[in-house]
Amino acid sequence: MLNRHASPRSFRTRSLGIRAGLLFLCLFLLRCAVQDVVVGAVLPLSGPGRGTGRSVERGLILAASALASRGGVDWRPLRLDIRDGGSRPAAGAETLDELFRSEAVAAAIGGTTTSEVNALIPVAEKYGKLLLSPCAAASGTPPESGAFLSAWPAPAAEGRALAEFAAYGLHASRALLIRSPDAYGEAVERAFLEAFRGEGRHADAVAPPADPGGFVPPRRRDAPVQVIVLAGQGAELTRLFQTAAAEAPDRLRILSGIPFPPESTYSKAPQSPPVLRLHPRLAPPDTERTAFAAAYRKRFGSEPDVIAARAYDLLMLLAEDMALAGNRPEVLRAGLEGRPRKNLVSGTFTLSSPAAENAPLDIRLAPSGKGFPVQPDDARLSDLRRRVEGIRFGDAHGAPAFPE
Length: 404
Hints:
The protein is an alpha/beta fold. It has two domains: 37-150 and 284-345, Response regulator (Rossmann fold); 155-282 and 361-389, Response regulator (Rossmann fold, 3-Layer(aba) Sandwich). It has eleven helices and 14 strands. The strands form three sheets. It has a seven-stranded mixed β-sheet, sandwiched between helices. α4 links the parallel β3 and β4. It starts with 7 loop residues before the first helix and ends in a 15-residue tail after the last helix. The relative contact order is 0.13. Residues 26-33, 369-388 and 395-404 have low confidence and may be disordered.
């Protein structure tokens, strides 16, 4: 019943209330109609590769939080669906297949080793999805794929960088490559041997089985090994490192590939030779990198590594591209591939096909992390560079003082 004594002001108040209610209802219905942008991830969260998997997971979680604070992906919420591949390539492929069947995934992030990546690529091709890896490249079979992009240097690029440093940085003439018995190790071996041999230099390569049973690296009396190069990923590299440390005499220099063993595996004996490792070049701190490190420490209680930082960058770049171009895999790939990415949290890299040399590499001293470029600017030699030049093999400084 109409209240004849109601004032015009009360009618206006009711009208505004009804309009506000309708506005909130429209916003609610619009929010319900907007679908989440789902990015899947298959990572080794259990098993021997769980350390690398956790780093990737944490980088993705921080990126998702940062995106949420900025309104998501083109004002659509981003949701991560992270699943455990169990550190087994075949199990990871099954998990990715299940993820693509059960979710409307825009893209997937996965593969922390070359073996894992090689197993995941056929699944991405099967469903016409884009697969991205922050810390591993493909090699061997399957060949380069339109369904895959990597933010990590290819194994062949690592092999060449290790060979160039051993030959021209340390002036070594005899090297031994101990590599993992998988696609990654095979690719590093091919590139290393091709780049190192020549001009009086010789290298041997061995792939010890998972249970070496007293494996002894080959030694030649006429040409003793000066440099041991270890090529493996994650737990495999730690195993190879421990094998070499147990069997190789202290006079041998050790270079290690990436990802590298935890600090606890390095010998701290004063007479032990330094351990040098190949590492993606780290950018100097700036405001964004400092904020990322602080957020990581606050949330996880530890320092971030380059793998976590690269995973963070990868999801941020993917979200930026999806906001501009949508979720179609071929459009996403076209927007992401081949453009050098600079001043990112993890440094500089280019998302590329497996064969590309897409990131600058450093040689770094383990476990302190001090390092210099594989091909440095001679005008700005670091203290570590001078130290390494002081222990070169067969130059004016003399041979390293390791026991025979």
